[in-house]
Structures are given as structure tokens and as C-alpha cells.
Give the backbone structure.
Amino acid sequence: MDPFIKEIQHINNVDDAINKLKSQTDISPKLYEIINFIIEAHEGQYRKSGEPYCVHPILVACITAHFSKDEAIIATALLHDVVEDTNFSLEYVREKWGSDIAHMVDGLTKIVEIREHEFIASDEQSNTKTISSALTFRKMLIASIDDVRVLVVKLCDRLHNMLTLAVLPANKQKRIAEETLVVYVPIANRLGISKLKNTLEDLAFYYIYPNEYNKIDKYLKEQEHAMQLTFNTFISTTKNLLEKNGYDLNKIKIYSRIKHHYSIYLKMQRKGITIDEVLDLFAIRILVEDDIDCYKVLGFMHLEFKPLISRFKDYVATPKENGYQTIHTTVFYNSKIYEIQIRSFEMNTVAEFGIAAHWKYKTGAKNTTNLNWLKSLEFSNENIEEFYQETKDNLYTEEMIVYSPKGEVFTLPVGSTAYDFAFAVHTNIGKKAMGCFINKIRKPLLTELKSTDIVSIELSDEIIVRCSWMAMVKTSRAKKQIKLLCTHRQKEIDEISGKNIINTVFSRYYEDVTKIYSVDSLFKIPQILDFFKHTKQVIEKSIINDNGLMTRFKILTSKIKEFKFDNVLIYSNFSISSVSFDHCCHPKFGDDIVAFKDGNEAVIHHKMCDQAYDKIKSNQQMLFCKWTKSSVYQYKMVISIPNTKGELAKVLTYLAEHEFYILGIEFGRQAHSYIQYCDIEFEINKSNIDEVKKIIEKKVKIIEFFSKKDAYNK
């Protein structure tokens, strides 16, 4: 752990905290005023560790000042808990210290009271605490779009909380550590603040996997001295080489670095190797004055030592999205492998402090950190937990670089498709994408991209809606835009379908009755049977009022009748003798469907089917339809169970406890000597297939799972 961070960890009184802050920045009268204010505001409040609560914001300010000398950001760090934990309002902060600081404090204040319209969750398991956390997280991100300093303070706050995590119960330690690892570490990485990222990673790693952490820690302590001696020899050789080639050793810096614990663990897991096999445990870092010197030094190193070409990376010419610039290379020397990192002093400042380097010194360092990832996040009110989860997933994913034909760089999550790329370029590009070229070769839009691919998007004149592609794209932007397109398309379909259904009812007498009699809420007609019948009655009354009693007899002969066909109900004033399912879209039981009148036959399509959309737009005659209600749903699954006595009995007992009715069991092939495949058919009164799967997956591994009841399998 960095010596500065270690010192922070052991400070537990106000005087020491203030003195530490003094060592990081010149405390202005304004900051002294705020310090005195928070000491008074937090008076009588204590942390779980026992020290006065005001020690925490002062130490958060210390950490913040270590990364930035900006007065406003340090003031925000001092005040970040005032609105949340004291009687002082945000308005008071604004009046006293300005809107700039107040805006940042607001972004860091937790949402405690949840209004009813905000309580929108993705499932029934939601609770107030979860919703509150998700809303607070979103609030912080939104505030950060205007001022990214909000995120810097939050990361420093999280670091101090992690440093004092030992006083909390084990379950809270693990929960906070896991949140740190999957939410705040990726944010620190996105902002390029490697010091924060690495420290947060190791602290979280310690609490989540203590045994693995201690094993790595013990190995490093045992091997560090011996490995450092060999590196000192290599460093000395490198210094002599550079000095011989005209470099003033007083103007460059060469030192070794040890890979941090969590990074070692990830490499071991990713490659399936032991710690002895990790090649870059230790590396040397060479700092030079100018960018061009990075390449000159690289040339000298490659001419002197044999390089391992497969491990060469040039992040100077092609920086990472977080602004990181360094040349990585690996060479052989005395039968050993050494990693070398070459960067300028300015690059080193950016690598260590990331976005905070912009405010680190009064002269300022070049800010190359790309914040497009933050601006691209979608912040809708719908399904707040879903938003929280998707954001976490996107933050945590590994990234790759792809290029436009003009050489523009786009950073995307690994596994992204050309369709994701289209939305990354521009929302309208994604909406109108009809094809693509990857490295000048025509490919489908759902082709998974590889790092360094050059991608060109072919555009149509019109927007193309692809609702079924939502699960096949990787980025939150693509998913969100597809969802919006589909929602808009669904509303359009419901509106026109409602009109077509009503016009079909009165088609004996009017070509388009809705042109003569206006109808409110047309979109409700295909969805709500009672509303459909009510609308019919309203129009009938209007016709009678306009045309007199002679029309009454004719109109009232058009009664809506129910026609039942296995798993589909049709409602019409025409006689319907049969139902067929169109082959183009294969609607399954429970899918949203529409029905078209074809003589005495009802033809069923999936609601979002392209052919159905064309028929709806051309105002073809339509019928009200819905699936029949069923209290029992049939499923079939293939599971794998240990090939030992009593295992199947355990599974069947578990299924019986959850009200599964077994229809049939068949043993399949033996996967291994210890694993057996088993086919089970069953009934249950749950229609949600995902819900049923979750119940089963808690007990056994599912190989295959599907519903037996769809449009073709009755």
C-alpha cells in the first residue's frame, strides 16, 4: 500500500487529520472556515470505529488534495456528508460557499426519501434500500456529467471507507467490498486514476478473498528481496546503456514497480497459471522528458536486448480511453524476462492521477481522459435497478479499440457487435444501420468485433426496428435505443391496430368509421377487451343519434362473439371458423400477438413481426385476439446430476416442495462416469419461464429448458 494511504488509515483524531491536510495543500481561510463548520455541524456524531465523525470528511479531503489542488473539490470533500447527516440544508451550503460547491455536494448526497413515481423496480423482490442505492448512484452520475469532480470526491470517500472497513461486521465488509470492486474500481479506471484504482482493488480483494490475498502477499514478501536484486542489476545495465547513448541520467528516472495483488490474482485466474508463472510481477519504468524520447529509448532497448514481440503494446500512439499513455515491451536479459514501461513525466502524471491530473498542479497537466462513456449512459426513470445493474456491467467489462474508416478511435466492451459500433458512432447511425463492412469485407451487423477492426456502416433511408436484437448487443446505449425504438413501434402498432379492429367491426356499413366518428385512446382497443366493447357501443350510439331508429336494428345485429380455438380466443361480430399461425414470425404462447381477418379465418402474427407491421400500416382488417388463460403450464428440461445413489430423489423432492407435478422422467446418456443427463417433463402453475428456471437452477444444473406450450405445440 502507498505510504501516504497507509498513514491516512491510522489517523483517528481531528488535529492529526488537519495536520495531514496541511501537508497536502495550503489551507486557505475559506477551507479553515469549512473545517471549523463541519467540526461544529458533526458535533456529537461518531463513526463505528469510535473517532469523531468529522475526522472522516477531513481525511477524505486529504486524499482528494493528494490528487487535486483545486480548492472547490477539497471544499466539497469536507462538506460531502453535511446535507445528509446534519440539520444544514443544501441551500445553506449554496448561500455560504457558492453554487459550484453546492452542486457537487448535492451529487454526493444520498437519496433517502423515495417518491412513489421513483419506486419503479424490475421485479417483486425490490426493496426501499436497493431502490435508494440505485437512485443515489444515478444522481451522482448525472451530476458528474456537468462536473466530473463529483466522481473524484466519491472515489476518495469510498477509499477512506474501505480503509476503515475492519470495524464493520463480516457480511457488511464483503457487501461493501464487492460493490467497490464492481462499481467504483471501474469508475476509477475510466477516470484513469490508477493510484485510486489499484488501492481500492487490493482493499476489496482482501475482504472478498482473504485467503487468496494472503497467499499472494506472503509470496511477494518472500520473493521481493531476491527479485529486487536482479532488477537492480537490470536497471544499472539500462542506465549505462542510456547514458552511453547521450542521455543525462539526471533528466530521466528509472525505477521498478511490483504488480499489485489483485492484478496478479486476475492474471492467474485469466490464464490458469500459478504465481511463479506470472511474467510481469516486477517491471521497470523509464520516465523521459519528451514523447519522442519514448520511441528513442524503445529503440535502444530493442537493439540491446531481444524483445518478446507478442507482448509489445504502444499506448503512446493509441492512448486508452482513460488517457493512459505508455509503451509496454518485454525483453530477454541473462536468461530472464523483464517487462519495461516507457513514458514521459507528463504521461506518468496522467497515468497516476488520471482526470485529476487536470487540477493536480496550477500549471495543469494535459487532460486526455475521454468521458464519452459517462455521457453515453442512459438515465431513464424506468426500471432503476435494471439501469444500476446494466451500468455496473458496462463499467466492469473489458474493453477493446475499433476504428472508423477515417481512423477515429472507438472504445467498446469486448464482445460488442458492429451494431453496437453503429450506435456508438451516433444514435441515428444505429437506427438506420442496414449492413456493415469489417476490414473492407461485408459482414452481418451482429458480427462480433475484434480489437483493431476497421468498421464501416451501411445506411438505409429509413429507421429499421429490430426488437429481437436487444439481447444480442453488448452496450447499454444500443440496448436502450433498441428498447426506445420498439416502445415507439409498439405504441404505433397499438394505435393503428385499434383503428383497424373498430373499422372491421363496422365494415358492413362504413369503409372507415373512425373518419366519421372520432375515437379516444385507440391504443387501448387491442389490449383491453372491455374497452374494445365499450368503444363499439359508443360508436353505435353515435350512429343511432345521427341516423335515427331505422339504423338501430341493423347496428345491433353486429354483436361481438367469442370464438375459442385451443389456446387462442378471437372476438368478432363476424363468424370465424379457424385460426392459423403465420410461418414468418413463429409466435409462441404468451407472446404479444395480432390477428388479421382473412375471410372466415383469423391469421395470427407476432405483434412485432415486420410482415404484420406492413399489413397493419395498409389498414387490413383486424380482429381482437388473446391467448386463453391456463392455470397449468408444461415444460421440458434436460438436467445434469451426479451419478450417485439418491441424487435423483433429492431433485424430485425439491421439485415437489415447489409444487412441480412430474409428467415423465427419462435418463439420457452418461456425460462422465460421475455425471448423468436426465430428461424431465413437468407441469406448474407459473407462466414466467425465467421464474421457473431460477427455481430449478438453485438446485441443479440445467442443460436445456423450454416451454411445451406455444403456438405449434399445444
